[in-house]
Sequence to fold (348 residues):
Amino acid sequence: MSNDAIELVSFSDLDVHDPFFESLRDDYRSFDVWFRKKANQGEKAYILREEELMGFLYLKEEDEATDSITPKFDKKRRLKIGTFKIEAHGTVLGERFISLILKKMIEENYNESYVTIFSKHHALIKLLEQYGFSIWGKNNNGELVYTKTHDERHNIFKDFPRIMIQEKNKYILSIYPEYHTKLFFYSRLQTEKNHVIEDLSFTNTIEKVYLAGMRGMDKIKTGDLIIIYRTAEQGKIAEWNSVVTSICTVIDAKHINDFISYEDLREYCGKGTIFTETELLDLWKTKKYPYIIKMLYNISLPKRIVRNKLIENGVIERSSYAGFIPLSDMQFKKILELGEVNESFVID
Fold:
């Protein structure tokens, strides 16, 4: 059975002779010695395993100056991407790990993150650059050194997972429970009323695609902020069971009539949509959900907010239909406050 979640496991639970590690062994002659040392020290790494090992990521904290890198590093608390490999059959897998790295960097208050990488790894370098890493220099081993800081880049990808709230339109967008759980798996509900959960949204793709038909969605444009509102299950009272769970940034917004064919639509949606091939084809034929929104999944709220709490705090009115609602800056910031979002995620 395939396991689609990233796990944190001990080095000692992994086989250094797994074929997955061959390319790392080719790049680093002392890889086996390093690996066994980490195993003996009880160190852990993040992995993603499907039928076999597909991704591996080792992270470590550094707080020192070094002249083994040119230009040299001054003393600074950094998150080092010690070893990072993904199977090169698409960027979705890499995005999950990038999301994990960048959220850890913010949540644990690192000043900077960096990685050393050989120039031949073109696809991984391109992915790192897309999410805000930039070339710093080289190390003594001849590898390129890429760094990521908290400097604002005014680009929704390069600033990810942080959100830019100035001069952005903000909306609540509702999603049915069956779609929500598939699309935002680790924003699913917890039974504990006041439970603050760990943000594990990296187990999903960063880019999400959603098709809907609510009135007003034609106003959505690139850069807008979307609050994801999970509707109540059938038969349950919305006031206590509809809940705000996540914050996304709009990458792109289209109308279904913008596509010349079903194949055109399918290619655009890619792997980010929860609709099956059959469902998507049906939506193409019926034009039932004409608005297609492509979003970056920035934040899974540490604390979920039920509809009653939104009403009590003046975010929405009791009579509001929460399918699609424009929000003021004040209402949006109240959601950040109620959702206990780490302020470091916000570029104000």
